[in-house]
Amino acid sequence: MADHIAKFNSLLIRSKVGMHQPKAPIKSRRCRAFTLIELLVVIAIIALLMAILVPVLRSAREQGQRVVCLSNLKQLTLAWIMYAEENDGNLGNGRAGVNSIFWGPPWVDLNYFSVPDPNKPDSRGALWAYIRDVGVYRCPRARGIPKQPVTYAIVCAANGDSPDETRESFFKSKRIGRTMLWLRKLSDIVSPSPGQRMIFIDYGQSPSHAFQVCYDYPAWNLGGIPLVDHNRGITLSMADGHVEHWKWRGAETMDLINAKLPDGSFNSMGFEPRTEDGLYDLQRLQKATWGRIGYTLGW
In sequence order, which residues have a C-beta less than 8 Å from that of residue 196 and are 6 or more positions away? Predict the structure, then answer.
């Protein structure tokens, strides 16, 4: 019995001694660095994601700007309609900044738009009485430094600078069938219907007069080249108040808008399209402006 007790005490003492003995230090682990190949893989993945995301973000931004632009055009067109209805159906002066005893106050007066006349509350233009927000008169995608205060224009056929071939006299429009070429009153818009006659267009810069479109010649007028690109297209409004976004078909149309045409592309009339798609873009604009085309092609 005594032997068992002695062995137990001996084991107990050994266990206590072992508990107080210091533990062997744990060797520190070394951090493993990235290899060059792993870094290159990470960089390649980031570049791939950027290549995917950047166009998507750019497209989303452009689409948002286009929605704002179309909203601006709709508001301006509704104000244009209200002005005519309150003035015995007479259309407002489509010439920007041209105040005339014959045509009345311009729809927008660029001479006073940025700095209005304090003595004339509506010196900014005839439509200012209906839309008193300067942001509505400018597309968010407008180019130019400094920023253009107004980027929308009324087409020349809507009581604007109408060429002689669209008028019988200084004040009288020419009618072909049921189509009145130069619009002076709301009642003139019969054929084609108001939903097919263009009024406002996003010009991309402040207009000096009205947006010029040729009637009897297949060419882009130098005063009627849009300077803003809405995803390879243009934004515009029709006389019934609805708005549209047109996509250009012709590559040469995009070159025209982006000023990338080669030297010698213009003649005395402007730029004549050389492709079917380019001609389609021009004629679509001419039909919406004048209600018809005033020429036939010989090719």
Answer: 238, 287, 288, 291
